[in-house]
Amino acid sequence: xxxxKAYIKQLNGITFVGKTDSNHWITMDGPKEFGGSDAGIxxxxxxxxxxxxxxxxxxxxxxxxxxxxxxxxEMNITAELSDGHPSVYTKINIEYVxxxxxxxxxxxxxxxxxxxxxxxxxxxxxxxxxxxxxxFKIVSED
Length: 142
Hints:
It contains three helices and six strands, in the order E-E-E-H-E-E-H-H-E. Strand 1 and strand 2 form a beta hairpin. It is elongated and about 50 Å long.
């Protein structure tokens, strides 16, 4: 079993920097009304970016292997939070948006399915705690 590590250091107040084994730093902070300086992303928001990065990498790689030519690829992720404390994500929706011509829906559907059911470890972890849905659209650039 592989082990991963993270290092987090307080800069001041509730502003922190952190890095993982990949040695890339990220700043995390809270809003000013909660004692932060609004200098970084909220820690809970990082979870959404991690999900998007994980499934996005899978989908892009699968489509590349299928020789699907994309002019662009974006994801819009929305999440519902529970009321009260601790506030947790209860539902997440991922909208995949593909730009290009001659993109087959069947290729996109299969790539998303493989990511969601086989490859994305973040999805696998999140599904144990919340509902994850997805949709996609293809934007032709004729």
